[in-house]
Amino acid sequence: MKDEPASTNLLTKLDCAFTLKEPFGLVLIISPWNYPVNLTLVPLVGAIAAGNCVILKPSEKSKGTEKVLAEVLPQYLDQSCFAVVVGGSQETQKLLEHKFDYIFFTGSPHVGKIVMTAAAKHLTPITLELGGKNPCYVDDNCDPQTVANRLAWFRYFNTGQTCVAPDYVLCSPDMQERLLPALQNAITRFYGDDPQNSPNLGRVINQKHFKRLQELLNCGRVAIGGQSDESNLYIAPTVLVDVQETDKVMQEEIFGPILPLMTVKSLDEAINFINHREKPLALYAFSNNSQVVNQVLDQTSSGNFRGNDGFLYATLLSLPFGGVGKSGMGRYHGKFSFDTFSNHRACLISPSGLEKLNEIRYPPYSSQAQKLLRWAMSSHSCTLQ
Amino acid sequence: MLSHVTGGGWGLHPMQRTGASAAPYPAKASRAARVCLGQKTSLPSQPPGRMDTFEDTARRLREAFSSGRTQPAAFRVAQLEGLSRFLQENRQLLQDALAQDLHKSAFESEISEITISQGEVDLALRNLRAWMKDQKVPKNLATQLDSAFIRKEPFGLVLIIAPWNYPLNLTLVPLVGAIAAGNCVVLKPSEISKSIEKILAEVLPRYLDQSCFAVALGGPEETARLLEHRFDYIFFTGSPHVGKIVMTAAAKHLTPVTLELGGKNPCYVDDNCDPQTVANRLAWFRYFNTGQTCVAPDYVLCSPDMQERLLPALQNAITRFYGDDPQNSPNLGRIINQKHFKRLQELLNCGRVAIGGQSDESNLYIAPTVLVDVQETDKVMQEEIFGPILPLMTVRSLDEAINFINHREKPLALYAFSNNSQVIKQVLARTSSGGFCGNDGFMHMTLASLPFGGVGASGMGSYHGKFSFDTFSHHRACLLRSPGMEKINELRYPPYSSRNLRVLLMAMEERSCSCTLL
Questions:
Q1: What is the reported pTM?
Q2: Residue A148's closest CA among A283, A261, A251, A300?
Q3: Which of A79, A363, B417, B472 could potentially form a cystine with B331 if both were Cys, beta carbons 3.0 to 4.6 Å apart?
Q4: pLDDT reading at B412 higher than 90
């Protein structure tokens, strides 16, 4: 919360210059269903820390959590400064007609556009944490079992319903051959021979997403898994091969326990493939060779990047978490949350006297004064780091 | 029909320059620009140039971006040096153009347009490599062996839409940031400040790599069509009304924006101050650039007593600055065009004219004016004045002033004058605005170490100095792990156990590491 002092130039040497962090006012946080506690509370922490009043709009799809947030959470907060709004997409639309001083939205790019358009009517600043298809490049030079363990865990964690999960893999045909048995190993090790009965595997959120995912199982060829059970919204940890770029599974964000492998002939082809698509929220590269990892990093763009692992970086609060392009705008976590929900007000306090010093700037203008002022303004004391 | 675009590969590449000062701009470039501006011209016959459509231009710039041309620091430095030469070699040309557009005196042009722009270029040149560096971040136990850093990446294709009131400054300063951050840029200068527009369209491109930079011309219709295209960042300076249009257009492509807008900047004048000092400062910042400044004090709140003392002091200041006949002072500018002139003329009918009030349509002159007895509902207290008119409104107390301010939109700038620093602190603490200055006018703008931007209806985002670089960069969170040491990961894999969970949680904790930020 402390004011941040700023360096001054010659003209402002006697002044006090600093940046003041102020709350915006009334903040709206709209959160999704996949990590309904995390993706509601973490922004909430930032909004509260920055001094705002907050309206929370949790997802109606994660009903259990919505109930707790609506009924239990307010008991722990000052309810003159905090409220929970419940409802579906219609109610959210109506909510968005109101004027807020900041809107923080986590969800799909499609709804992100709706939120931004609504925010534009009131010139409300926003952070949009969206999604996309997070590519994962697997180099030939790596240990398939290690990579498979990591891939599998991050893909099937939360039944794949994670905005930063590896969405699809790009690797050579050779690597694909080595990865498949390794992935099967990992899946069996994590979830047993009968994943449907494993206590460690989740379920798909609802019917609509279940049916959507079931359809994706028809793309390419099922190499591992592929089973589904509508009665308990179960989709097996699945790996698909022989998929085409135009297949549905390679077009929309999967958001489920399905991992397509696409073969490429080279690292360059992989990078080109990635760069012809929307910038993703996360990007992964696996290789024993750090040059390869760095090349992927240097030649692509994404919200976040992870070499040789999955999304554990999200737990490192010293890193800003956010997207770019269609995967979002703005960022948060840790201090970045506080800064996101604050107005950074530039302040300069000058002495009320010493008017003689100002004479130089007043009309009638003289070229001498002009030269002097020009020099004073170009003074180099404010090198920022 | 798309706006015509200059910079289609014509003109000299800065790399090819031999170091001699620039020749008058090549006839080719000027022909392109003049056709773009819709004027007929008789020039020596030239082969008909290819007139880019905007799609072609955007594609060209994106291709250059994808090729990585703007990534290396050396490239960006060369562009910034080009900007520097543009300012230095065309100083007179720019001053003349500013005089033509806004009747700006050389003094005002120098300090508010040229020097500020030059300062930003110089700051970027001095700091570019430091700004571009990956920023290492503290790690927790779970990531101790990793490499964790934030990488600054350009967004790609940036659109900068600039206004007419400081047409050089408000185009070049964002441009410095966009270029320093490694973007390709499309500039859309204001068609209202025609002389500067011409220079930006015809002369500026010669100093930059035109595969990465273009100027788009036209009025509101062309701008609206321009906004239908997809950009990776849009930087807009202008009115809140158009700001909404820009943000709505940006929403269709999920393009992030910075909007530098405006509003009515309140100025509280305490009883405890020296009226003449305050009047000098008020008058200078109000009438500078004929009041056409987004951060100028828009109206004054003071006690009736203070008003009585301020009026003669303001008259003193005005006479001292502009003489007895301001219309003939070389130091006072003019209104940009008829439309704004008429708008301001109407405002002169509000309240009562205490000082000035004269106007002359033939040269778009409005006298430095002070109004009193204005009502909150008067037009002059409703819209941003953006002219040389200063209304004084009386309040009974500091509290009333603060309440008045807080019932209105958050302004871009807020001012408070008092000998008593507690009063200043109170105004600061109990209000909100983009920027604040105690006991002076918009000097905070000259400090590149302060973020310049609005809040609420006065805008979103900020820039100047490093803030510009950060605005035009995507901050990519990067974590590089070693590929081995898989044993350590065993803890996190299923089948899950509560023991493993405990250990993992401990490793993820903030406390267990040296990473308390700031």
A1: 0.92
A2: A261
A3: A363
A4: yes
Report the DSSP pairing between strands B389-394 and B299-302: parallel
Q: In what order do the strands lie in the sheet with A342-349?
A: A4-5, A16-23, A342-349, B435-438, B413-417, B266-269, B299-302, B389-394, B369-372, B352-355
DSSP A279: P
Place of tokens 């085409």: A244
Amino acid at B21: S
Asked if B468 and A295 count as a contact pair (C-beta separation under 8 A), the reply is no
The string of pLDDT tens digits covering residues B307-364 is 999 999 999 999 999 999 999 999 999 999 999 999 999 999 999 999 999 999 999 9
Please state, in angstroms and rounded to a whole number, the distance separating the CA atoms of residues B470 and B141. 29
Which amino acid makes up residue B236? F
Point out the residue among A17, A353, A366 whose CB comes nearest to the CB of B449: A17
DSSP state of A321: B
From chain B, pick out residues whose CB is under 8 angstroms from the CB of A21.
none
| Portion 437-456 of B in contact with A at CB < 8 A | 437-440, 443-444, 446-453, 455-456
Q: Is there a contact between B483 and A189 if contact means CB atoms under 8 Å apart?
A: no
User: Is the Cβ pair A344, B433 closer than 8 Å?
Assistant: no
A305 interfacial to chain B (CB closer than 8 Å): yes
* Terminal Cα distance for chain B, rounded: 52
CB contacts of A102 in chain B (<8 Å) are none
Separation CA B297–CA B441 (nearest Å): 7
* Cβ atoms < 10 Å from Cβ of A341: 29
Residue whose structure tokens are 């590269």? A285
Q: Is the complex ipTM more than 0.90?
A: yes
> Which residues, 6 or more positions from A364, have their beta carbon under 8 angstroms from its beta carbon?
B321, B323, B329, B331
Note whether B159 and B178 are within 8 A (CB): no
The tens digit of pLDDT for each residue in A294-304 reads 999 999 999 99
